[in-house]
TrEMBL record:
Annotated YCII-related domain residues: 22-94
Membrane-spanning ranges: none
Lineage, broadest ranks: Bacteria, Pseudomonadati, Pseudomonadota, Gammaproteobacteria, Lysobacterales
Protein name: Transcription initiation protein
Organism: Luteimonas deserti
Family classification: Belongs to the YciI family.
């Protein structure tokens, strides 16, 4: 089975304040369903209040992320699933719950990790 990253950038979740509580409840329900199904690995949201730093091999710390890369924020879940079709189904459930499209990526398999 492969591990899939299901995620969305913070800017994608445009939800009215009145709907935010329901979206939170619904997304947590999908995560609980993934846990009950035994496919949940881990997930959460990036804490935008903590500044990003880049750390080089010699231990040098540089404020900010890669200048050419996209900002990594928003929420994510990692699920271990038997197929891409199953991953699409879970991504659709999270998209409905979060009220925004989800990006789906598969992790490269590394038998040593």
């Amino acid at each position: 089975m492969a591990k899939y990253l299901i995620s969305f950038p913070a800017a994608a979740m445009v939800v009215r304040n009145a709907e935010l509580e329901r979206a939170s409840r619904d997304s947590h329900a999908v995560i609980e369903a993934a846990k009950a199904a035994g496919v949940y690995v881990f997930g959460g949201g990036i804490n935008a209040g903590v500044p990003v730093v880049r750390v080089s091999g010699d231990g040098t710390v540089i404020e900010g992320g890669y200048p050419s890369g996209p900002e990594l924020d928003g929420g994510f879940a990692v699920l271990e699933l038997p197929s891409r079709d199953a991953a699409v189904e879970w991504a659709a459930r999270l998209a409905a719950a979060c009220r925004c499209d989800q990006e789906l990526r598969v992790f490269h398999f590394d038998p040593a990790s």
